[in-house]
Amino acid sequence: MTKTEITEAHRAYIACLNRQDWERIHEHVADRVTYNGAVIGVHGYRKMLVEDFRAIPDLAFNIALLVCDPPVIASRLIFDCTPKDVLFGLPVNGKRVRFEENVFYQYQQGKIAAVWSIIDKAAVAAQL
Amino acid sequence: MTKTEITEAHRAYIACLNRQDWERIHEHVADRVTYNGAVIGVHGYRKMLVEDFRAIPDLAFNIALLVCDPPVIASRLIFDCTPKDVLFGLPVNGKRVRFEENVFYQYQQGKIAAVWSIIDKAAVAAQL
Questions:
Q1: What confidence tens digit (pLDDT) does each residue in A46-86 have?
Q2: Residue A44, pLDDT score
Q3: Backbone angles phi, psi at A55, to 5 degrees
């Protein structure tokens, strides 16, 4: 995939997440996707995202930075949201929090095959 | 700067850190460098790194992934080290820990002008 193809595929993936279109997630994520080195598969990936939106009803993925060097695209995502109870083991309980995620996605045959993510959980703890 | 120039400059920067060559850090980092949005300057940057090596005598920066899309280069760094007492507010006390950092570096005129970093502090806490 070219840089343009990956960038466009990635923006479509983020849009899919933001409209919670779980029926189409398999169009963006490979069957045997890995997350931080572990095979979780597209079903595990979808389950993780559904759970994220359950914990954070107003969750939205906002791209602050997009860096594409095929087959990898790296992104800094910004979240500004109000998790309803516990998030990352922290009692957020409806408080508005802002935090970032720095994440790498490796594409293969048009889909995300590997993800390496770090979420700034310490930033959330510092806001409580 | 081209992709090749940034990648080479970046590998030289990492080598400079690993040999703790603080006298040459200003060759790699801009005077008014920002770190996660705050201007800390090259002096603040150097101070932060000197403190990191003080807390972790066997600290080494290992590049697991390098993604360059000028003027930004993103890196996943792996640390496998034995912090001597407290690290990220956690009582590590000489235990060997492994953790990652996902970080973006924006280059300007041959030097790092902005850094957006997230260190996986939760991974360190989970190993204690």
A1: 999 999 999 999 999 999 999 999 999 999 999 999 999 99
A2: 98
A3: -70, -30
Q: Are B93 and B56 in contact (CB under 8 A)?
A: no
Tens of pLDDT along B9-29?
999 999 999 999 999 999 999
Nearest to A118 among B67, B72, B118 (CB): B118
CA distance B65 to chain A (A): 9
Using a CB-CB cut-off of 8 Å, the residues of chain A touching B3 are 69
Q: Are A101 and B118 in contact (CB < 8 Å)?
A: yes
Closest by Cβ to B67, choosing from A67, A76, A101 = A67
Q: Please report which helix (H) or strand (E) contains residue A23, including its range.
A: none
Q: Is the ipTM of this complex over 0.85?
A: yes
- Which pLDDT score is estimated for B75? 98
pLDDT mean over A89-117: 96
Smallest Cβ–Cβ distance between B67 and the set A72, A121, A122 belongs to A72
CB B102 to CB A104 under 8 A? Answer: yes
Q: Do A121 and B121 touch (CB under 8 A)?
A: yes
Decide: B97 and B108 in contact? Cβ < 8 Å: no
The overall average pLDDT reported for chain B is 96
Q: Which domains does chain B show, CATH number per domain?
A: 3-127 (3.10.450.50)
pLDDT band at A42 (very low <50, low <70, confident <90, very high): very high
CA atoms of A32 and B42, how far apart (whole Å) = 43
Contact A102/B102, CB-based, under 8 Å? yes
Query: Rounded distance, CA B109 to CA B101, Å?
Result: 25
